[in-house]
Design brief:
The complex is a heterodimer of chains A (about 425) and B (about 140). Chain A is mainly α and about 425 residues long. Chain A contains 19 helices and no strands. In chain A, helix 1 crosses helix 5 and helix 6 packs across helix 9. Chain B is an alpha+beta fold. In chain B, about 40% of the residues lie in helices and about 35% in strands. Chain B has six helices and six strands; from the N terminus they run E-H-H-E-E-E-E-H-H-E-H-H. In chain B, the strands form two sheets. A four-stranded antiparallel beta sheet of chain B has the order 2-5-1-6. Chain B has a two-stranded antiparallel sheet with strand order 3-4. In chain B, strand 3 and strand 4 form a beta hairpin. Chain B is flat. Classes of the chains: A mainly alpha (about 425), B alpha+beta (about 140). Chains A and B meet through loops of A and helix 3 of B.
Chain lengths: ~425, ~140
Amino acid sequence: MSGAEPADAVSDAIARAFREERAIVLATLIRQAGDFQLAEDAVQDAFEAAVTAWPRDGIPANPGAWITTAARRRAIDRLRRNQSVAQRAERLAELTRLEDQHEEPPMEEESTIVDDRLRLIFTCCHPALEMPARVALTLRALGGMTTGEIARAFLVAEPTMGKRIVRAKRKIADAGIPYRVPADEELPDRIRGVLRVVYLIFNEGYAAAEGDRLVRAELCDEAIRLGELLCRLMPDDAEAWGLLALMLLHDARRAARVDASGRYVALDVQDRSLWDQERIRYGLATLERAMRLRAPGEYQLQAAITAVEIQAPTAEQTDWAQIAELYGALATLNPSPVVELNRSVAVGFAEGPAAGLALLEPLLSEPALERYQPLHAAHAELLRRAGDAEGAARAYERAIELTANAVERAELERRLTALSK
Amino acid sequence: MSQYMLLVYEEEVDEAEQAEREKALPAMLELHRDLSEAGRLLTVRALRSVQTATTVRVRGDETEITDGPFAVTKEVLAGYYLVECADLDDALALARRLPMARWGTVEVRPVASAEDWLNFARRAGAGLTDEDLSTLT
């Protein structure tokens, strides 16, 4: 490291360090400093310092180590100035000890990095935080999105998102949410909670009916990166692999889900040549890896259903019997009226409309589904195929009544009109 | 170690239901004994029925005394624990072990440390004597 560096090389190096090292440095410093906010501020300071120092002194040989050292020094400075941090003396002593130990620290051991990042994930996804805060903290601390980017992706004002994040960090500090991988008896529950946060981030990007599609795609990418991180950190958790597979297989169809005018395109009429074959291969391999662990779960079953849909050469050639069977397994694992509805549709294709109707009709009296448009649309389809045009018309009318989406309404109206032809 | 208060809320029920709940007493007492032996149980108290509650509000020169609790709710404050815990997870695990969590609700609140409270009082301009400090900490 010597002499002045060209400006481009420096900004590239800083951007790369930010992308690759920030989350790791942050996770470690949170453990060492024992304070989320303090660590985040100190890491921010360190990157700002790099902007001045690297063009002058040259890009360090090990940018991650440089940022780690700089961030720790800033944390010490901040702690010395700030009287109000709880257990300030203790934390200061620990940081100073680390500072004296080695002038130029070797990067932490790989296993320590893994542990620190896991701890941070469990802190960010702690059930004592409200769900939107879990999502925002996870994206910020692990995904490396800025508050502004998160705010835009979730269609809220930046100050609102900023306040949400600050409130969550304050709760972590004041309520004593630990920075620790949960005890064995709590672990399965807590892992489910983490996976749910990541899936929610993905769905927010994937199921977007409004908003800037580009920003939303970024949420899908970020969720997939988080999914990959979870698999790396918890390679023995079958559901972590299952979730990653599910997200990949959905995401592979991203380009085919909207037509040229930006309208939603249903799976059975999508242009299959637009599907991303490489993503599909990656998704299928990930699903296989999940199933080798022999611990079935919800995400794996949903991914398996998607895999069957995707592997059919055309929509007509879909193996509905297998899909019906997978929905049956899902219903056993996690009974829900929506799963039951999907099963009845699959059975309707596999065994004929009468068999589908037999499963669907009990759901019509389910209070949770009373205003659920897809139930009435599916009911209408089955009745139409069973030859009951009058019943189908009534069900279509009910579905049209319940839809708020103009594209959906047009499609349902088209089907209703087609009945009388 | 930090202090947490566990506030127990439950519905007040008839005698038959109450007798059913009392079957959990031995397990609860055992939990209390465990906590005491570990030096973690600072206080545990049950409150008398919410029908005995009285609220006081002073607004300007007016004092308003009302029969009844702070807010009329189905589940009412029935008792509290003051315990020492390593962190929130530790406190939540404890709350989960309370039999009352099965039929009622347990609210877990971190207690501000004496140091925090003193800093707050000083910032607010309170002149604190050594004697004050010893009674507060």
